[in-house]
Structures are given as C-alpha cells and as structure tokens.
Amino acid sequence: MAALLGAVDSAWLSQLAAEGGASAASELRSAASALQQSLNSPEVASVLDARLSLLPSSQRNAFCVPSNKALPQTDTSLQASPDADCVYLVGNSLGLQPRRTRELISEELDNWANLGVNGHFCGKRPWLPIDENVISKSAAVVGALPSEVAVMNSLTVNLHLLLVSFYRPQGKRNRIMYEAAAFGSDFFAFESQARVHGLDPKEVLLPLKPREGEETLRTEDVVAAIEAAGDTLCTLCFGTIQYYTGQLFDVAPITAAAQKVGGKALWDCAHAAGNIDLKLHDWGVDGACWCSYKYLNSGPGGIGGFFVHERHHGKDLPLLAGWWGQKQASRFDMGHEWQPEADASAWRLSNPPVLQTVALMASLEVFARTSMSELRGRSMLLTAYLELLVLELAGEGGLSVITPSDPKSRGCQLSLKFPSERLCLETFEGLERRGVVVDHRKPNVIRVAPAPLYNNFSDVQRFAKALAESMQEAKGEPAAKKAKS
Ligand SMILES: *Cc1c(COP(=O)(O)O)cnc(C)c1O
User: Fold this and answer.
1) CATH code, 12
2) Which of 311, 344, 367 delimits the end of a domain?
3) How far apart are CA 321 and CA 338, in angstroms?
4) Does residue 268 line the site of ligand 1, with CB under 6 A?
5) Could you tell me if the CB of 190 is within 6 A of ligand 1?
6) How far is CA 19 from the centre of its chain?
7) Closest atom of ligand 1 relative to the 239 alpha carbon
8) Is 118 helix (H, G, I), strand (E, B) or coil?
9) pLDDT tens digits for 28-70?
10) Do residues 220 and 117 both lie within one domain?
11) 271: Cβ below 6 Å to ligand 1?
12) Which of 191, 319, 434, 436 is deepest in the core (most CB within 10 A)?
C-alpha cells in the first residue's frame, strides 16, 4: 500500500525531511495510483488531507482563513461557495492570524487598563521580561540555543545591528559578499554600512550572480568566489532562502568557507524562519536575523528575531548599546557603567513592545505543538504536490519553475516564471478573481507558497485548477475573454 495512505505519522514525516525529501514526489504518485485517481483530482487532495490532518503538523484550525467573498478582487460568480476559505498561498509575505492572537492582545490591553504601570511587574505575564515568553520557542524554530536569540526591533534594524558587530573592515579586509539579486532593504543596509565606515560601496560590495542562463547560484561557485576573495572578505550575508527564486542556500558549507578565509557569515532568515528546519547553532553561523510576520504569523510589522552564535558571547564585540542590553541586576540603577548581559541579550536596546511580543507568542504556541522536522516533511510533500500539478500545465503555456527542483534546495515556495509580463499579470488577475491569493513579482514571476503549518493539499489542488483556467483566459480563449468582460 502507498505509505501516504497507510501509517503516516510524525516520525515518517521527519524521516522524509531527514532524507531530503527525495521520495516526496513518488509517494504522491503512488498514493494517486492506489486511489485510481489522477493526481490533480480533488479526491486525491482530500484523502491526503484527511490522513495528514490527524498529525500535529496540520494546524489549519488554529488560524483565521479569509473567505472567498471577503477578498477585494474575488468574482463571486466564479466561486462555487463564496463563504468557503480562499486559497491563501502567500504566507511568505504575511502569515495568517492565529485564532489566539486577539485573546492574548486583549489580555494585555486589560492589564494595562486595570493595572497601569504595575503591569510591568504583575499579571500573568509581567511586561518587563515579556520577551522571555518567546525566546525559547523562537530558538526551537530556528535551531538555536535560547541564549543565542533575542526578539526585538524589526528585520532591517536587526541586520544593521549584526553588521555593526560583524562588519568590521580593516585595511584590505573590507568586502561584503552578497547575492546580486538581494532584497532591496538588505542591499541598502550593506551599502549604507560601507558608507558609515567611510568606504566607497562600489569598491567594497561584492555581488554574486548565477551563471549566464541560470536562475540560481551553485554552491561550488559561491565557495569558489569566497576563496577568490580570500583575505579581502570581511562579511558574507545572504538570504537563507532567496525571496524571488525560492532557492535555499547550503548554509553550512558556505558559512564554513567564509570563516575559513577569515570572514564572518550572516544569514537573513526572513523567508526561512518557520518555513524550514533551520539549524543556526549547528551550522555555526556567526549571526542571523529574521522577521516574524511571514511564516511566523505574528501580524503586520511584527517583531524581529536576532541570533548571535554563543562563541561570540561575552567577547566585548563592538555593538550599539541600550539599557536593555545592560545586566538585569544593574539595569535600573541608571548608572553609566556598561555591564552587558552575557549572551545575545546584550544586543537588546529597548524595553520590549508587549503587544507585538504576545502576538508572536500566539503563533509560537502553535509551532510548539509540532516540530520543525515534522513540518519540513509535511512541507516537502505539499510543495512536491504543487510542483507536480504545475508541471502538468507547464508545457503548453511556456510556464517554468525557477525554484530548484531538489526539495533540499528550496523551502515551501515555488516561483513560476511566465513567458511574458502580460501573460503573468493577466494570469495573476485571473487567480485573484478565483479567490486565490499569491503574489506577483516584477517582471514575470508569481510566487506560490503553501505554508507548512496551515495550507493543505486541497489548497494546492484548487490553486492548480485556478491556474489552468486563468492561463487559458489570459491566452485569450475567446469564450473565456467574453465571460471576463
Ligand atoms: C521581508 C524581507 C525584508 C523586510 O524588512 P523589514 O525590515 O521587516 O521591513 C527584508 N529583507 C528580506 C530578505 C525580506 O524577505
């Protein structure tokens, strides 16, 4: 019997992840053939959902999913049921709201109303140490020791804080290596840090591009570029998962190569935290940062995450200091003698934003019901399913997937590339009318991200059906065009 129709459990999913997801696609195919249905049929999707929904990694019920009719672009005449859940595949941009979030925020609003300033010390969760409620769960999600993590600020701020400590140009060791297509905010951080040090960004920034005709970087090329940079490499900083292509880099070997030539390796985990089973500690990365509003579902503008490896603790590294990095014992003495905390807390600046922190807590409580290894296994199945269904449509429309096909080299997101900007945009609009929420990135890519925690096989199946219809419509089948106007 197909494993997916039999005894699939948490351990089975973790094992699939440990094996790099190599068998994900064949498991799906054998399940469909055992059911004597085509892979893209709603029956296959609902059987898989029924099997997997019993496991702790299936947490859709813990989240609020917008309905079809609530979305601004939906054409309800194209919907069988306007009240049904929309197909939300954009957790890479803003994760869904956990059902508990409102309650946790309300509790703190009540404490503020009822206790005023006393809320700092009393109530169920005193505010002064409120971040203690999210540190160890955050650490579990990114594969870190709790002492290596701080939850504070937002992503770009945290990236700057890391660069202050880990971009210390001296003489010819002054270069920052990054992927040429880095997220704009990250690039601006690199460029402005060079200027802060009085250096010319053109001379010190070292962007890496994929080979001619290729969409993603090869590890061997990154390592070769690091070796070529040698003692000029000061800091390497990559997005762990590239936001546009969905490529997951080989963090451990790239980090080791940068450190071997005397550089530091920083990773922006915006698209990786809550998506893949990160092992920041074991991979030996020097520093990392992430946002929590994408796969970590903490809400728009949510609080950021920050990691400094324990080997750098207590070493008096240069940092931007604030009173919250001061040892707790003397923090409120208001003296002027800097006595930093002994771990990543030394990098904290300000007292924590309570509402943002408990909003993150609501989501981390859901993550704590499962493990990142189980989630990664579930995610590899979902994305393999998405890939199989998209590839069935790829031939005719000139559609391609630019995300690596090896499950080890990607997270949950697939980036679909269209032959023209027009076809991409019109297909995107067709998806919107059908209650499918994905995102469009200029010029001709649609990003599709089945979030491991709450998306299911039916979401992916409904997406593929809507994609087929929308592409047809965009290609100008006369009947479809008419129906549209
Ligand atoms: C989402 C994202 C950002 C956004 O930065 P904020 O400081 O949170 O506004 C930056 N960089 C990357 C790589 C991202 O994916």
Assistant:
1) 3.90.1150.10
2) 367
3) 9
4) yes
5) no
6) 21
7) 13
8) helix
9) 999 999 999 999 999 999 999 999 999 999 999 999 999 998 9
10) yes
11) yes
12) 436
Residue linked to tokens 């630019």:
402
Q: Which atom of ligand 1 is nearest to the CA of 182?
A: 13
CB-ligand 1 contact for 270 (6 Å cutoff)? yes
Tokens of 109: 């609003």
Tell me the CATH number at 154.
3.40.640.10
- Stated pTM of the model: 0.96
Is 95 contained in some domain?
no
Binding-site residues for pyridoxal 5'-phosphate: 155-156, 268, 271, 293, 323, 351
Burial zone of 234 (CB within 10 Å; 0-12 exposed, 13-18 middle, 19+ buried): buried
| CB of 243 shorter than 6 A to ligand 1 | yes
Model confidence band, residue 7 (pLDDT cutoffs 50, 70, 90): confident
Distance, in Å, from the CA atom of 225 to the CA atom of 160, rounded to the nearest integer, reads 24
pLDDT tens track for 379-404: 999 999 999 999 998 876 689 999 99
Q: Which domain holds residue 76?
A: 3-85+371-474
* Beta strands 414-417; 445-448: pairing state: antiparallel
Q: How far are the Cα atoms of 79, 92, 149, 371, 382 from residue 142, in angstroms, in the given order? A: 39, 16, 9, 11, 21
